[in-house]
Amino acid sequence: MPAPVPLPLLEVRNLHKHFPIRAGLFARIREQVRAVDGVSFSIGAGRTLGLVGESGCGKTTVGRTLLRLVPATSGQVVFEGRDLLAQSRHELRLLRRRMQIIFQDPYGSLNPRMTIEQIVGEGLFVHGLARGSRLREEVAALLTQVGLRPEVMHRYPHEFSGGQRQRIGVARAIALRPAFIVCDEPTSALDVSIRAQIINLLLDLQQARGLSYLMISHDLGVVRQISDEVAVMYLGKIVEQAPTEELYNDARHPYTAVLLAAIPIPNPRLRENRRLRVRTAVDDDSVPSPVNIPPGCPFHPRCPLYVAKGRPEPCRTTPPALAPLPGQPDHLVSCHFPNEERYTAGQGQATFEPEPAARQNTA
Amino acid sequence: MQTAPRIESPPHAANATPLLEVADLRTWFQTDAGPAKAVDGISFAIGRGKTLAIVGESGCGKTVTALSILQLIPQPPGEFVSGEIRLEGRNLLAVSPAELRKVRGGSVAMIFQEPGTSLNPVFTIGDQIGEAIRLHRGLPPAEVRGEIVRSLNAVHVSDPERRLAQYPHELSGGMKQRVMIATALSCNPKLLIADEPTTAVDVTIQARILDLLRQIQAERGMSILLITHDLGVVAELADDVAVMYAGKIVERAAVGELFDHPRHPYTLGLFGSLPRVDQKQGRLKAIEGSVPAATQFPAGCRFRERCRWAAPECAQEPPLAELTPGHFVACWKAGEIEPPVEVA
Ligand SMILES: Nc1ncnc2c1ncn2[C@@H]1O[C@H](COP(=O)(O)OP(=O)(O)OP(=O)(O)O)[C@@H](O)[C@H]1O
Ligand SMILES: Nc1ncnc2c1ncn2[C@@H]1O[C@H](COP(=O)(O)OP(=O)(O)O)[C@@H](O)[C@H]1O
Ligand code: SF4
Ligand code: SF4
Ligand SMILES: [Mg+2]
Ligand SMILES: [Mg+2]
Known about the structure:
The complex is a heterodimer of chains A (363) and B (344).
Chain A: E1 8-22, E2 30-44, E3 48-52, H1 59-66, E4 74-79, E5 82-83, H2 89-96, E6 99-102, H3 116-126, H4 132-145, H5 162-174, E7 180-184, H6 192-209, E8 212-216, H7 220-226, E9 229-234, E10 237-243, H8 244-249, H9 254-262, H10 304-308, H11 313-317, E11 323-325, E12 328-333
Parallel strand pairs in A: 3-8, 3-9, 6-7, 7-8
Antiparallel strand pairs in A: 1-2, 1-4, 4-5, 9-10, 10-12, 11-12
Helix pairs in contact in A: 3-4, 3-5, 4-5, 5-6
Chain B: E1 20-31, E2 34-46, E3 51-55, H1 62-69, E4 78-87, E5 90-91, H2 97-103, E6 108-111, H3 115-118, H4 125-137, H5 141-154, H6 160-163, H7 173-185, E7 191-195, H8 203-220, E8 223-228, H9 231-237, E9 240-245, E10 248-254, H10 255-260, H11 265-272, E11 321-324, E12 327-329
Parallel strand pairs in B: 3-8, 3-9, 6-7, 7-8
Antiparallel strand pairs in B: 1-2, 1-4, 4-5, 9-10, 10-12, 11-12
Helix pairs in contact in B: 4-5, 4-7, 5-7
The structure holds adenosine-5'-triphosphate, adenosine-5'-diphosphate, iron/sulfur cluster (2 copies) and magnesium ion (2 copies).
One iron/sulfur cluster binds next to loops of chain B.
């Protein structure tokens, strides 16, 4: 259903977050962890942007920096027309009501000494929006909305399962009627069936309340079900971004292809095709450290297309810009050869070199 | 180098005795709230060179099943209430402690979910693999080093000579996982038990590890007991599948059959809950509720409270019955339920 293009609720422009670290014995010599290294995107009202990538690529840091839970190194975050990073503490407090976060760990993120009523009602209380029996009514209504019985408000977090705690986390996040929620891996600590329940809950709440989400996840299956648009991150940068179905059906960045092809498809008959699975070009699949980001295209030491094309020089020397494909303004790719290969999720095969000729360590 | 898909092969050829047979195994724990019937009367077999996957949500008894085979269950509170675990015909529940030590890490090896927890942080990689080889193969010291390098090569660890001297914290998660597999494989086990071997790693690393297991299995004819909650991983690796719920096996079949014709409502629920990367589904067909605690399994069909087909007869416990040849289902309604989900 092609709706009219909504105004962006949130716009992130060229966001950087560098963590200084001490290197070696000489405390003065400092290196930088470039956790977020120039990220831009926007999210419309009632829309969801999925943010995917391997562990350590900077997803959580994007979420925390744009909420100003940690200070940004540079960049702009415009929320409902105001630059969040330039707001005073007081203004920020008011804006915070409109922006919330749900964490990955449903165990660590709830204070064990507070009752569920205190946890879910804290924001309402602190902002002076409800007290006493009004507060209890509000909390009861919130708990009902996330599928818990209101009576549980007198109990403590340890009495609940992981899925129930995640529901409590969701109730807390929606208490102040936010417009936008950062969901940082909300389902990855959960079991199969509970994960499905929480995905459904987030979808239902979005429908009912017109919420916008930044859905951070390394689970590309979850992201496909919940996002309107998806951004793929690698070493602090977005390397591909497109409307969801476009990304899953016509991925152009070799890294996106590697990620999609790595996911096991629940169909045993596709096993044969697996022989052609896209591989990264080196054996140790670990992501290089964001302290020493490779020169040129940051993905080149692992890139199967780079190997297949005979290691072309620009990949090693010139960082590719994140640019739209010709005629597709909403499909952005950061690769020198975006038209070379295409990849569709679930095919279980890809057109890259099936197996790099030699197992060489390019790193 | 990989094997051809083996999904059409019969679960157990008639002439070969299975490598491992588990019969009516019950592993309970005594708790203040009464007995926790973590594993409560399960039977299965694994053929030589075959992979059996056990799937189910957490708390269904998968890990207790794996630990029972190696008898890594503390007794008390644990207790083997009934059953036999026959490895090449020998009942492991009846052998001496000395024999059992030879089995562990020898003919049966195990890898765990968290690579960090099973590698000792104060020993080098070389020491850890060397220890396993010395213990189980009695090689002269001069030959151990070459064997370690061979083990690391087998799991495609780059630059194995250098890795020997490294400590676990110097390795990435994927490398640690490989070293753990190398340690487990260094004694040429006949059975590898892999408990959620890829749950804690990125999909890219998972794909590599699954490739590796497949390749090593093809080379050595090793059997694998694969424990996972991910039906995608099952589809990649398994020959046979056992679906476990609340301490029981509720459905068992060859992998192709199970994915084509899942019958148990719990199995259908697992398929419906799966957010698929190859399809846009939107809202998922989630199973409501969650697995009860092992001390509180309901009488009758244990899935009853979460089952939308539940009927009065489900107050009686359904037997695991053969619905079609080789396809076993424990559900009174199995014959009537047509899969509402498209799964393959
Ligand atoms: N406070 C900090 N000080 C130094 N480095 C940090 C800090 N926080 C994060 N980093 C580093 O920044 C990089 C990005 O981390 P981040 O937590 O954003 O990754 P992520 O994509 O969320 O990963 P995961 O999937 O594992 O959650 C990592 O290399 C991490 O080690
Ligand atoms: N030592 C123990 N004492 C009491 N209950 C236990 C013990 N170990 C496991 N259980 C219970 O047995 C059931 C199955 O556990 P487990 O095999 O670890 O599940 P899975 O591996 O399928 O997630 C769970 O309900 C768990 O709480
Ligand atoms: S620019 Fe070169 S190295 Fe980078 S992703 Fe494209 S082909 Fe690979
Ligand atoms: S026996 Fe009854 S309750 Fe149990 S799974 Fe079958 S239909 Fe559902
Ligand atoms: Mg994170
Ligand atoms: Mg387990």
